[in-house]
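Late entry, written up from scratch paper. The run itself happened at the end of the previous shift, but nothing got recorded in the book at the time, so transcribing now.
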Amino acid sequence: MKVKRGFSAVAILVSCFTVLPAMAATFEVPRSFEIMYVDLESSRQFGNDFKVDVEEGPHQIVVRFNKLLRSGGDTQTFQSEPIVLNLQFEKDTYLSLKAPYVSTVRQAEDNVKDPQFSIIDEVSGKEVDYKQQMLTTKSGLQNTRDFVAEVERLTAKNSMNANVSSSGPDVAPTKMSDDVELQMMQFWYNQSDKVTRKHIRVWIADDLYKPEVSSIQFEMATFWFKRADKESQQAFQQWLIKE
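Output as recorded:
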């Protein structure tokens, strides 16, 4: 009887674990990136800074470029602003963020401004479509920032962009309304003053051009221009001609 009761207890214990929700998908980043939040919850609740397991369905994952480089006896830290990714996970999906290897200070500095990466489905080997938003750069101590609140404001603001009127040119009809890169280039251009708009135009003609005094509008407009494909870049240039 004692043995039977022992087996019964084990069976009950196993049955309790089997009713727990199973994680259906995984998201992983390389060591040069970190996962900050999953659906605005700390990634540590899901796994660790480099790999998290999530349930099937849409998820908002916040990542950032985060690289340590040693030079002589010193160690430098390079961090980008948090990047908000909107991803769709199917059952048994394994998505990996792939990024070029960074070994020099110049490469690290470039990635701080404009992190380079793609997202691959490890099962099919194909690149995955996704939408991203990036927090704006702020001065001061970074560890005092409320990133969750900033992400909430950013996503809420961008979701309302379609309903916000501006004094700038009309949207070019050559692209569909779901062209995120084109919309963001137009948005930041419309937020710029006359001087910044001139800097943006000059930079498009010469991408080595750097204004003496930059601004967040200039940085974000050029960021999205570099991220856009040729079709979106041409659509933006045509849109500027109408201005």
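Helices lie at 2-18, 105-113, 147-159, 180-190, 194-205, 216-227, 230-241.
(Scratch paper discarded after transcription.)
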